[in-house]
Amino acid sequence: MMLSKTGTMRDAYGEALLELGSTHPNVVVLGADTTGSLKSGVFQGKFPERFFNMGIAEQNLVGVAAGFALSGKTAYAGTYAIFVPGKCVDQIRNNIAYPNLDVKIVCSHGGISVGPDGASHQQVEDVAIMRAIPRMRVVVPADSVSTKSTIIKIADIPGPFYVRLTRPTTQIVYEGGFEYEFGKAKVLMEGGDVAIFANGIMVPEAVKAAESLRSGGTSASVIDLHTVKPIDSETVTRFAEKCGCVVTAEEHNVLGGMGSAVAEVLGEKRPTPMKRVGVMDTFGESGDAPALLKKYGLTSSHVAEAAETVIKMRR
Amino acid sequence: MEAAQEVIRLKETARNTRKLILESLAEAGSGHPGGSLSAVELLVGLYFHVMRYDPKNPVWPDRDRFFLSKGHAAPLLYAILAQAGYFPVEELMTLRKMGSRLQGHPSMGIPGVEAPAGSEGIGLSLGVGTSLAAKVDKKNYRTYVLMGDGEQQEGQIWEAAMSASKFRLDNLTAIVDRNGIQQDGLTEQIMPIEPLAAKWRAFNWNVIEVDGYDFSQLLDGFELAASTRNRPTVIIAHTVKGKGISFMEWSPQYHGTAPAKDKLSAVLSELK
User: Fold this and answer.
1) Segment A109-165, tens digit of pLDDT
2) Which of A151, A132, A137, A168 has the alpha carbon at shortest distance from A253?
3) Whose CB has fewer CB within 10 Å in chain A, the N or C terminal residue?
4) Sheet-wide strand order for B65-68
């Protein structure tokens, strides 16, 4: 697989919103003083009457988005991940998920790759929080290409979504294009020795890990499990069965995230040896993204190492 | 003379609303009488004089919107909606029971209920959203939000207040049921919210204070709110917790204690 190009998920978010502005007159966009950073501000340039900056008041941001949805709008609302799932869990639960409203919460700056801002800004619990809320759907796109497709496609899937983006420019996995399919994992590489499920920026790391494993004679499957909820349990069990061991890789606490979701599926449907790569239930710190990802165990070599360990656990 | 007759009609509806609240709560065996009884006239005025809606078509796009932010007053909202024709009055006796549509706090699926409620402080933001949507769609429906006075302690109320004045939401009217009492005691002892009118004025709202049991003051207030341009209005309605039942009035205990079933007829005999 080629990983030669890079892209920024936030740019893709802005581009997707611009397209939706033209194709979907019911779309409104709300931000909270980070609209320049999230690139949702480009929507304001073209559709000022459907753009609302709510200031540094995230709970109101969520509630007002719900009010729009109650009036027949599809509301895209977001800011940095650290300021929404944790700070607004009550509003998300009671104002959006319980009444099943058409609000798409899109947050950037998920994970530890936020970098120098430090632990207060590094959201590593959001997938766990959002996954636990009934009716909420959770998507963690792998790159800018899939981000754009995801943002556009979910406009036509009624009900609440949480889409988690990352801050830095990252490697493009889907140079050849990507069409978001709701709840359907994307198989990137097929191999028989180990199945690696990844999402977010860990997808390119998983691809690199699989390529390095291949040079050592190990063939790995790599699956982009972008939609954590509802989880594609068919694909998860099929690849667990095919390979006999599983690695999960996510830029999130290993407690409650995608790895936990995979473990839940396999524990009930097909118990399989597995290793989770992720943030080991700890807070981050300031640093540049590559250094942090290395220190906190979120690189291709950590994925490859986990694969080698879990292969030895196969029955 | 016509106005006087209208007030007589509204007073009769208020009396019947109190009766339905108490009967449904006694049947349920739990729930919140105090804050339901205090705000009866506020909702009777809205639903039976002010608001435009169609109970046969609860999702009529041009209807006025009402959000109950103080969700524990569900028995009041249900009694009002039943009398307005959204569902049979007899259904009120299923309140809080397994399998009933009438959940302990408002939820979707009850005809006439616009949004779930129960977590304090989050309802005004919904009203800001529907008011903004009305502006976007160039529709002239109005949005009303009933808040408790205890929930003025929630920070999100003030986030919503700030945003409503930023966007000049003159199609939004908030009402504060200023009954002075919250679950643990007096608001001014638990966490003082005064000077309340000055707070709302400082957030650039049009503030109207009324006696919550004087229909002519109330209806004038709603009219003034509707004719005010470029600013949202808050009506601070001075009320009495547990209004109408002597032992419930001014009693924090009856914030969340239902009347006993075997005492119901004595309780109802107090209603004037």
Assistant:
1) 999 999 999 999 999 999 999 999 999 999 999 999 999 999 999 999 999 999 999
2) A132
3) C
4) B65-68, B143-148, B172-178, B233-238, B206-211
Q: Which class is domain B2-268?
A: alpha beta
Q: Alpha-carbon distance A70 to A63, whole Å?
A: 10
For B87-148, the DSSP string reads: S-GGGGGGTT-TT-SS-SS--TTSTT--S---STT-HHHHHHHHHHHHHHTT----EEEEEE
Residue with tokens 């959006």: A96
Question: What are the structural domain ranges in chain A?
Answer: 6-171, 186-307
Alpha-carbon distance B146 to nearest alpha carbon in chain A (angstroms): 15
Which of A64, A83, A87, A133 has the most B C-beta neighbours within 10 Å, making it the best mutation to test the interface with B?
Answer: A64
DSSP string, A44-63: HHH-GGGEEE--S-HHHHHH
Reported as a single tens digit per residue, the pLDDT across B36-87 is: 999 999 999 999 999 999 999 999 999 999 999 999 999 999 999 999 999 9
Query: What are the phi and psi torsion angles at B94 (to 5°)?
Result: -95, 5
What is the length of chain B? 272
Identical fold for domains A6-171 and A186-307, yes or no, is yes
CATH for the stretch A186-307? 3.40.50.920
Q: Are B108 and A95 inside 8 Å of each other by CB?
A: no
Q: Give the bridge partners for A123, in sequence order.
A: A110
Residues of A annotated as catalytic (active site), given as ranges: 58
* Contact between A137 and A161 (Cβ < 8 Å): yes
What ipTM does the predicted assembly reach?
A: 0.95
Identify all chain B residues contacting A73, using CB atoms and an 8 Å cutoff.
133, 136
Q: Measured between alpha carbons, how far is A129 from A82 in angstroms, rounded to an integer?
A: 12
Partner-chain contact B133 A66, CB within 8 Å: no
